Amino acid sequence: MPPTGKITGRQLCHRRASHSWRLFHGESSEALAHATFDQDTAWLLFTKGIDVGTARQKLGIVGDERLGSMILQMVAVMA
């Protein structure tokens, strides 16, 4: 099961579907990892405004550490 996390004030969940990952609103009670950090950290990380090491210091992970830390690789593209 993929990580869930609180991102920009909302609970989001990534779930594995057939051959891809899907993003859902809400939290999964079956999650193997929960990753959380504040909204400012999320915004800066996802737009490359801070480095992964700085974001990692503010990241809280419950459960599978490897799985939860995958959120540090997420990038958002704004148009």
What does the model show?
- It is a single chain.
- The protein is an alpha+beta fold and 79 residues long.
- The protein has one domain (4-68): Nonspecific Lipid-transfer Protein, Chain A.
- It contains 3 helices and 5 strands.
- The protein has helices spanning 39-46, 52-58, 65-68; strands at residues 4-7, 10-17, 20-25, 33-36, 60-63.
- It has a 5-stranded mixed sheet.
- The model is unreliable at 1-7 (pLDDT under 50).
Search tags:
5-stranded mixed β-sheet, 79 residues, 3 helices, Nonspecific Lipid-transfer Protein, Chain A, alpha+beta, 5 strands, 33% strand, single chain, disordered N terminus
Percent of residues in beta strands?
25-35%
Count structural domains: 1
Please, how many helices?
Answer: 3
Q: Per the principal axes of the C-alpha atoms, what is the gross shape? A: globular
Give the spatial strand order of the biggest sheet.
3-2-1-4-5
CATH architectural type: 2-Layer Sandwich
Low-confidence stretches: 1-7
Series of secondary-structure elements, N-terminal to C-terminal: EEEEHHEH
Q: According to CATH, what is the class?
A: Alpha Beta
Main beta sheet:
5 strands, mixed
CATH-defined topology? Nonspecific Lipid-transfer Protein, Chain A
Helix/strand structural class: alpha+beta
Q: How many β-strand stretches?
A: 5
Helix content: 10-25%
